[in-house]
């Protein structure tokens, strides 16, 4: 019989610049000042390991006792975990379609969740789900994103994303909507060109969904398995809002592997103009040729002035996005400097899963660099602590008797000040 791992809530009360740790894994209320006009909610990001992928990559799970790998053993544990943590929003990856229909969705619905699902394109039958508590939110819009594009040869992979716009249910007054995004980016460590383009497509969709009438953006939470490690160029791009990728090898983008032998350098631009996404990661205004009827009933096509700008942009190796995004986790234990891990199996133990969020101004003060648009801010109240690789090998790695995915769930509590 294996032992169990201990994870505790870390409470982060930024207003007094003190970090408070409270042991125990129960949802104790944060000791932050209570404010009247607030909306608190929790978010879980969890790659639950689809049974198909487990079986396709069985060499990764040779350290596991056979019975713990059966779906009939794993699912009750996963459900127990979800029920225990009781998050208001779940962003799940590797949700297998048949299990979703027969077990996952019905179980989560009976726990009070509304569920939305986007299956991957192609032949692998898994996808991303976002589920939220009826009692906390109403659904404003559902926006699936397919990263496969038959008209863009680069984009021949079947990964997807899902972006929801949710309306907080609050007793008094109005609240802005909250944009929740979930994705599972391409695994292939060598194809950073595809990963960056998939990320740009997700950011473009988030921009369009989170965009408010006054030109600002509502608060954003972006979760998922990004198949990229902390400090990698892809990770830095998310956090800093800009990336100069000149001379960068495609195998260096995600930081999953060290070697970049024989690897191509990212082309400038990374993706072709017909993708319709700018270097700022927003959808480009449609380049529809103006059709003007002349007196002689001939049609004349004129190209828009913006065409010139698009051409100039092509020469630059700079990517940007408009949000200032912070990571819920800091990726290293402060006392020892040992890395946190979110996934652990026989080939690797690294962080690839994240919860990013648009932080309140004070959390990002002094952040240099990119021009940042006005984005609604969230305060991070707390997070469920992660573990080291060593911690996980004391319970035989993942999955094990009690933890039934090869990833750990990530969990954060946020406050929206109204
Ligand atoms: O790393 V993952 O696991 O985020 O936990 O994302 C992918 C990998 C997932 C979806 O494609 O399947 C796993 N070697 C190791 N793992 C792989 C491989 C592979 N060749 N292919 C897919 N996965």
Automatic annotation (TrEMBL):
<protein>
    <submittedName>
        <fullName>Angel-like protein 2</fullName>
    </submittedName>
</protein>
<dbReference type="GO" id="GO:0070935">
    <property type="term" value="P:3'-UTR-mediated mRNA stabilization"/>
</dbReference>
<dbReference type="InterPro" id="IPR005135">
    <property type="entry name" value="Endo/exonuclease/phosphatase"/>
</dbReference>
<feature type="domain" description="Protein angel homolog 2 N-terminal">
    <location>
        <begin position="2"/>
        <end position="33"/>
    </location>
</feature>
<dbReference type="GO" id="GO:0003730">
    <property type="term" value="F:mRNA 3'-UTR binding"/>
</dbReference>
<dbReference type="InterPro" id="IPR050410">
    <property type="entry name" value="CCR4/nocturin_mRNA_transcr"/>
</dbReference>
<dbReference type="Pfam" id="PF19339">
    <property type="entry name" value="ANGEL2_N"/>
</dbReference>
<dbReference type="GO" id="GO:0000175">
    <property type="term" value="F:3'-5'-RNA exonuclease activity"/>
</dbReference>
<dbReference type="Pfam" id="PF03372">
    <property type="entry name" value="Exo_endo_phos"/>
</dbReference>
<dbReference type="InterPro" id="IPR036691">
    <property type="entry name" value="Endo/exonu/phosph_ase_sf"/>
</dbReference>
<feature type="domain" description="Endonuclease/exonuclease/phosphatase">
    <location>
        <begin position="44"/>
        <end position="362"/>
    </location>
</feature>
<dbReference type="InterPro" id="IPR045816">
    <property type="entry name" value="ANGEL2_N"/>
</dbReference>
């Amino acid at each position: 019989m294996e032992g169990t791992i201990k994870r505790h809530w870390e409470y982060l009360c930024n207003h007094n610049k003190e970090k408070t740790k409270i042991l125990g894994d129960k949802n104790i209320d944060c000791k932050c000042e209570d404010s009247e006009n607030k909306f608190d909610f929790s978010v879980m990001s969890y790659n639950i390991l689809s049974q198909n992928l487990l079986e396709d990559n069985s060499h990764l799970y040779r350290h596991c006792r056979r019975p713990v790998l059966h779906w009939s053993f794993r699912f009750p544990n996963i459900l127990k975990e979800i029920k225990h943590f009781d998050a208001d929003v779940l962003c799940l990856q590797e949700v297998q379609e048949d299990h979703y229909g027969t077990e996952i969705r019905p179980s989560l619905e009976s726990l009070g969740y509304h569920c939305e699902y986007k299956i991957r394109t192609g032949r692998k039958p898994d996808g991303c789900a976002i589920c939220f508590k009826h009692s906390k939110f109403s659904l404003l819009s559902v926006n699936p994103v397919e990263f496969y594009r038959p008209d863009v040869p680069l984009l021949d992979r079947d990964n997807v994303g899902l972006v929801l716009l949710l309306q907080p249910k609050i007793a008094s007054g109005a609240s802005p909507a909250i944009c929740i995004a979930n994705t599972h980016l391409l695994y292939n460590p060598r194809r950073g060109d595809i990963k960056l383009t998939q990320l740009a497509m997700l950011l473009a969709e988030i921009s369009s969904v989170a965009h408010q009438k006054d030109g600002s953006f509502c608060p954003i939470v972006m979760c998922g398995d990004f198949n990229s490690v902390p400090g990698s160029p892809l990770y830095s791009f998310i956090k800093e809002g800009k990336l100069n990728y000149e001379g960068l090898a495609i195998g260096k983008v995600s930081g999953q592997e060290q070697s970049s032998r024989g690897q191509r350098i990212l082309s400038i631009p990374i993706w072709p103009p017909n993708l319709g996404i700018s270097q700022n990661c927003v959808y480009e205004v449609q380049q529809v040729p103006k059709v003007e009827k002349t007196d002689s009933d001939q049609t004349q096509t004129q190209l828009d002035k913006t065409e010139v700008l698009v051409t100039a942009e092509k020469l630059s190796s700079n990517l940007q996005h408009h949000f200032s995004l912070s990571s819920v986790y800091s990726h290293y234990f402060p006392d020892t400097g040992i890395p946190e891990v979110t996934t652990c199996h026989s080939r690797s133990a690294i962080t690839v899963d994240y919860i990013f969020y648009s932080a309140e101004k004070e959390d990002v003060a002094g952040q240099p660099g990119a021009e940042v648009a006005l984005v609604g801010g969230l305060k991070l109240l707390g997070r469920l602590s992660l573990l080291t690789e060593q911690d996980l090998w004391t319970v035989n790695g993942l999955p094990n008797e009690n933890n039934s995915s090869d990833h750990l769930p990530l969990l954060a509590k946020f406050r929206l000040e109204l």
